[in-house]
Amino acid sequence: MLYKDVKEIKASLNGILTLDGEKIKIADSDKFNQKTIDEIVYNAVFGDQEIREICRWVIWECSQQLAIYPSSIQGLYEARAHGEYSNITVPASNIRGMTYDTARALFRAAIKNNVKAFIFEIARSEIGYTDQKPSEYTAVVLGAALKEGYKGPVFIQGDHYQVSASKFSKDSAAEIKTLKDLIKESVDSGFYNIDIDASTLVDLSKNSVREQQRLNYEVTAELSAFIRSIEPEGITVSVGGEIGEVGKKNSTVEELREFLKGFHEELGKKGKSLKGLSKISVQTGTTHGGVPLPDGKIAEVKLDFNVLKDLSKAGREEFSIGGTVQHGASTLPEEAFDKFPQFDTVEVHLATGFQNIIYDSSYFPQSLREEIYGYIRNELKGEKKDSDSEEQFIYKTRKKGFGPFKKKMWDMPEDIRKKISEELEQKFNLLFKKLNVANTKKLVEDKVKVKPVKIKIPQEIKKL
Questions:
Q1: Exposed site from 132, 234, 357, 378, fewest CB < 10 Å?
Q2: pLDDT, tens only, 392-443
Q3: CA proximity to 429, closest of 87, 108, 99, 94
Q4: Mean pLDDT to the nearest integer, 179-205
Q5: Beta strand pairing call for 345-350 and 17-20
Q6: Which residue, 444, 418, 425, 460, is CA-closest to 115?
Q7: In a domain, 305, yes or no
Q8: What are residue 334's phi and psi, to 5 degrees?
Q9: 57 and 76 share a domain?
Q10: Same domain, yes or no: 62 and 82
């Protein structure tokens, strides 16, 4: 239900939550878990601005009380850089739609498999077309953790905080400011892991690798220094860089070396004690979302795993980073996932595969699916290439249906959402096993320091 005003929130929470100054106390945990948290999360997304702010604050405070903490994965990746563990690849999941149900599935699978090494993430582009701002995304993820009884660090990441090459060329200062504003909003919302992607600025026409990577490492260093200036006290945000734009040519050890040498030189100019990168994304032959064939099926990908292994080795031994990151992997065949830990991949990003489970589920209402596809055909027809078949166009574009139809998906009958969530949970179970992150609870607890963080209390909370 949508709360009409603050009085209705107060009535709904009466006897379940109490406010003591600026602290929330859970008076009835059973009622809170059975129904109240669902209502609070729903209103944190769909309520008016005043109600959204109150509900997001309530979720944050309840999470802290129950030992659920937005955290940085920095300590874990530093341990990998120092050889304290190996043969583990952390999955980073982009959730574009049905976010509450998907996050709940992810937490259930994590609890079942004793997993603590996993990341929730959302890219700069996804924030726009899925209509999920950072504060909303954090609230929904933490709400899902509360609902499922998960405890411990929750890693939330800004993925592909990417520089637009066209906007940068027209007004570099404006584009950098836009990214800094997004980073500030994200860190304030509990995103303590940020992936900077200035690989769009790499210029392969330059004569030397250093010059090809120059704008990339200069911008990455500037944004990294900015992150260090705003991170909460006691938290070192995990920052990633990128040397190979996904879908372009495969990365090389020389590119990694020149990028990181230049990056450290630039970062040193901004502050000698500033912490550098924890990982670096590279290109191995994948494409975001996979390559759809005319019949809508996905083409087989030739992925060079040795790129991951060789660059991870050089990164750890020469620059003390955790290793390489693989993007665009969720549509790969199941047998490929065993190889990521074997080839020293520190992190793998997954997105489209979960989207496909949602859209292609036999439980997803056919009428809603057709309504979304109709919207895509009519409103997004300008994005259809002449060479695209109907199936290719829908497959490549349906990710943009999550924003306009967010509420309709959320309002699907509970039994339907539960069935789809169970299908997602099966996928997460499989990935956790393949990526070898099962039973990582002790490892993460040993290497990651959780830190309670207070966020600004809404003025309207005094009305409760």
A1: 378
A2: 999 999 999 999 999 999 999 999 999 999 999 999 999 999 999 999 999 9
A3: 108
A4: 97
A5: unpaired
A6: 444
A7: yes
A8: -55, -35
A9: no
A10: no
